[in-house]
Amino acid sequence: MCIYNNGCNCSYVDPRCSPEELEELAILKNILATTTEKYVMTEEKQKEIDSRSIFVSNLDPKMTEDLIRRCLECCGSIKSIHIQRDSKTGVSKRFCFVEFVMEDSVDIALPLNGTRFKGNLFYISRKKSSNQTKPEENKENLPSQFRHPIRSSKYVYVSSKSQKRFAPY
């Protein structure tokens, strides 16, 4: 091949390339240009993925993707497993999302809710869409003490040997 990468993101063509290699290079560039379109996640696609996914919580922090795969592969083929980890420490947040290939696998996995695996009970539920919002509460049905937001004091009591007073914080 007559393309060289000089360590950065740019490449150059060797002037000694044959015409066949240049033609092959042009075809490859054309294919690459048409296949590298920006992937956009549509709401419909996200809902379809969520319908094939489950939320698994109360995992052991040492649980790996392989162990989760072995535990849940009896429900169906698994497309991906995403264990959520703390961004600073890399330690598991003790929950994950499992995406199955088939939507029916979710219904097979749900009865495993409350199963003990490696000493921990783990809980399984359907994955909720990230754009799902809670329905607006009807404030008229709430008791009066819950209809208004709680107001906090802007002062705190300070006790020192020299004086006792309320001071802003």
UniProtKB/TrEMBL annotation:
For this UniProt entry, the molecular function terms from Gene Ontology, in alphabetical order, are: RNA binding
Q: Which InterPro entries match?
A: Nucleotide-bd_a/b_plait_sf, RBD_domain_sf, RRM_dom
Keyword RNA-binding listed: yes
Q: Which UniProt keywords apply?
A: Repeat, RNA-binding
Q: Is-annotated flag, keyword Transmembrane helix?
A: no
**SUPFAM superfamilies recorded for this chain?**
RNA-binding domain, RBD (SSF54928)
Q: Where is the RRM domain?
A: 52-129
Q: Which PROSITE patterns match?
A: RRM
Q: Per its record, how is this protein called by name? A: RRM domain-containing protein
- Species of origin reads Caenorhabditis brenneri
